[in-house]
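Annex B. Sample input.
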Amino acid sequence: MYTRRRRRYFALMCGCLVLFISAWAFVRLWSVPAAVAMCVVAMVIPPVAAMAGNGRGRGDRWWDETSGDPKSDEWWDELDGRKPPAGRGPEDDKKHHRRRP
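Annex B, continued. Sample output.
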């Protein structure tokens, strides 16, 4: 998935450069307003390319990735509800559970 995003970013940025360079290399000789319009379009492409390059695809399972730090992974598992807090099991939750009056 990373390769597809990188290629999409590269294609968009190449298109941006082609628009910008061609606008001032030879399009300006025929029409300055067209060259300015091409530059405006080229100006919009880099933020779009950054969003396309950093967006996650449908098949990316980024929420299951581990960070490599066991303490951090344990903390995130606890927050996500995958594991009980350290030193506590499901039976401890029943002991410390308070009933509402």
